[in-house]
Design goal:
0% strand; TPR_rpt; 11 helices; repeat; single chain; mainly alpha
Length: 185
């Protein structure tokens, strides 16, 4: 079957909520064209929605191949880092996230992911720098600010953490209140 029809079948199956059948069609596509970027990316995306380690390992394999095929795509590097983070492979996740931000310094979610991975690795000062960059790119998202406050708190910098809580009060008062409570305990 022509690849264009297989792609259309995948989209239709996903639209109908038939994820398992879509995965089967994607497997057929991979067998016919092992280097098809659409098949690799789409299958990886579907597999990454699982928390099952085997599905995540398959997603990571697809994304590694996609990164080799499209070495200049920051999104593919970020997605690989995201899946590797879910697998708990912090060093490789850190390399993938660092690659993503090197390719696209404005990719805010990659800066956030880089910060999370560096936190897991105990690299708090470099995690703080990543979260700072994330908050510059996404100033109204509470996620980067919250992690930044937690990182400062863990570094025995309560004034910085409190400054961030006060900043959050201006646009996310509930998040600020919960964070303030968390940092007091």
């Amino acid at each position: 079957m022509p690849m264009i029809l297989l792609r259309a079948a995948v989209w239709l199956l996903l639209l109908l909520g038939l994820r398992a059948l879509a995965l089967q069609v994607l497997q057929t596509m991979r067998a016919q064209a092992p280097q098809d970027g659409f098949a690799l990316a789409t299958r990886a995306h579907l597999l990454a929605q699982s928390s099952a380690p085997e599905a995540l390992r398959l997603a990571a394999a697809d994304l590694r191949q996609l990164c080799q095929l499209q070495p200049d795509q920051a999104g593919a590097a970020f997605n690989l880092g995201y899946v590797l983070e879910k697998l708990g492979d912090w060093p490789e996740a850190e390399r993938a996230m660092a690659r993503a931000v090197a390719l696209d310094p404005k990719l805010d979610r990659a800066w956030y992911g880089l910060g999370l991975v560096r936190l897991q690795m105990g690299q708090i000062p470099s995690a703080i720098e990543a979260f700072k960059r994330n908050t510059e790119l996404q100033p109204l998202s509470p996620y980067g600010w919250t992690q930044l406050a937690r990182a400062h708190h863990s570094q025995q910098q309560p004034q910085e953490a409190q400054r961030i809580v006060e900043h959050l009060r201006g646009f996310e008062p509930q998040v600020a209140a919960a964070l303030a409570q968390e940092l007091r305990t």
